[in-house]
Amino acid sequence: MNPIIFRQGIGRARVSEASLERLRKFLLPLELAEAELKAKPAAAVMAILRDGPRGLEVLLGERTKREGDPWSGQIGLPGGRHRDEDPTMLATALRETKEEVGIDLEGRAEILGHMPPRAPGNKPEVLVVPYVALA
Q1: Which among 37, 115, 20, 25 has a CA at the least distance from the CA of 77?
Q2: Spatial separation of the C-alpha atoms in residues 126 and 124, rounded to whole Å
Q3: What is the pTM of this model?
Q4: Is CATH 3.90.79 correct for 2-134?
């Protein structure tokens, strides 16, 4: 995955604590991520936000183009399939982020929560948990 930083400012130069609190309230608590994932294969992605000079920035990447890969060439968040050695879905998201874009978020970012798991249109048999971190 080739990292791309989206630099479109969406607010003031600094993200207020009130804005972060609204975001935290919108997201689900981390412990709820595991409950829905027993019946289907699972994957996790990480939306990495940072307070940039013109507002929030998000890290996106362009996936490598490969024959037979349903996500080939797409722009998206770092992430991938859950492995048996991953104790949690959050561990999956952290591992995949480090593998794909070389960013180790463990202990360096605030994990704000996650959005409800969703099945992507091109792989309905997989549930994806999107996490959100502030780095």
Answers
A1: 115
A2: 5
A3: 0.81
A4: yes
Identify which of 134, 72, 70, 64 has the alpha carbon closest to the alpha carbon of residue 99. 64
Classify 106 as helix, strand or coil: coil
> Which candidate, 25, 41, 50, places its Cα nearest to that of 117?
41
**First-residue to last-residue Cα distance in the chain:** 19
81: its two tokens: 């399939």
Amino acid at 84: D
Q: Which residue has the higher pLDDT, 63 or 82?
A: 82
28-46 pLDDT tens trace: 888 777 765 665 789 999 9
Per-domain residue ranges of the chain:
2-134
Sequence-separated (6 or more) residues with CB below 8 Å from residue 38: none
Task: Identify which of 132, 125, 112 has the alpha carbon closest to the alpha carbon of residue 41.
Answer: 125
CA-CA-CA-CA torsion sign (75, 56, 26, 38): positive
- 88-106 confidence digits (pLDDT tens): 999 999 999 999 999 999 9
- The one-letter amino acid at 85: E
